[in-house]
Amino acid sequence: MARIGIDARYLENEHTGIGRYSYNLLAHLLEEDDRNAYWIVLRDDYAGRLPAGENATYIRVPYAPISPASLLAMSGKVRGLGLDLWHAHFPIAPLLPGAPFLVTVHDLQPLRVPTLGAGRPLPLRVAYRVFYPLAYRCTLSRAKAVVAVSQATSREVRECFGIPLERIHVIHEALDDRFQGPDMPAGKAGGREAIALPTRFLLYVGATLPHKNIGNMLRGFARALRAPGRDDLCLVMAGRESRFEKDWQNLARELGIADRIRRVGYIDQAGLPLLYERAEALLYVSRHEGFGFPPLEAMRHGLPVIAASHGSLPEIVGSAGLLVDPDDVDGLADAIGDILEKPDLRERLRKEGARNLKRFSWRKAARETLEVYERVLQQTSGRRPC
Prior knowledge:
Helix content is about 40%, strand content about 15%.
C-alpha cells in the first residue's frame, strides 16, 4: 500500500475549471483503487461536497494554491504526511515535498497570455510576470511525471520547458459526472423566465478573460446579425464576471449590439442544461484552451458547437463541431449562419456530438492516472507496481 497525497486546493464552492478536474478524478480514483491510502489537501474555506472513500483522509490548509506558500509552507505540511507520492493538480508544487511527485498541467495560459495580469496593482503584475514562470519551471523540472490534459498542452509543455516526451502522459478529462447524471434534468432549474432567457439565442459559457477571445466572438455575432430574419437573435453569456467586463461591454456598445446580449453570470450545474437545451448553438472560439468543457456539455444536450481551430479544441471537438480560425470574424459569422439555416447540418452535428462524447471518460482517466502513479512509484522505490 502506498500513501498518495493529492493537492486539491482548486476545489471551489463554484464548480469550475481545475476544481472540476479534482473532484471527478478523486471520485473515480477512490472507486477504482482500494489498495492505496489517499491524503487529500483542501483549502480551509471549501464547503462543497467531497468524494467518499474509506481510504481517503481530507486535510485543510489556509494556503492559496497560487502563492509562495505553495512552494514554502506546503513543504512542511506535505513532508509531515510521510507520503510515497504527491500529485499536484496545478504546476506549482512544494520545494521540499519529501516524496517524488507528478503534476497535472491544464494549460500554460499564465505564460502564453501576458495580458491576464492586466488590471491588477503594479506589484501583482510584476509578481505575475516573475512568479509564474519561475514556479512553473521549478515544478516541472523536478516532477517525475507530467500529466497533460490534451495533446495540445503536451506540445506546449515540451516547447516551453523541454520536458522529454517519455515523462509526459496525455490523459483527457471528461464530462462532469454531476452534470450528466440522472439527477440533472434541464427542468430542474425552472422555466425560461427563471433566468430571463431570450426566445432565440446563441450561447457562450466561460470567463471573460483575454484568451477567451470575447472580442472576436462579439464581432462575428454582430456580422451574423446583418442577415435578414435575425431580428430576435441574441447572445447569452454565462460564466463568472472578471475584471475585463468593461472591455467587452464597451465593444458591444461600439458594435451596436449591447441590447442583444444577456449576461447571466455564473450558472450552477443544475441551471446549465436549460441553457444548452434552449440555445441555437454554442460559441467557443478561445485562442488558448487546454481542454474545454463547454463543448462537451453542449454535445451532451444535442447543441451544435462552433469552436476555434486552435489549441486543444480541434482535438476535443473533432468532427462534431464547426471549427473556425479564432481571428476570422467573417468565418465565424458564416458558421453561425450555417447552423441557423441548415437543419441537416444541425442534425449531423448532434449525432456526431453523441458519438464524440464516448471518447471521454473519468473512469478511463482515473485508471490511466493510476498507471502513472504505479510507474513513478516503481521508478523511485524499485518495487513492483502496486
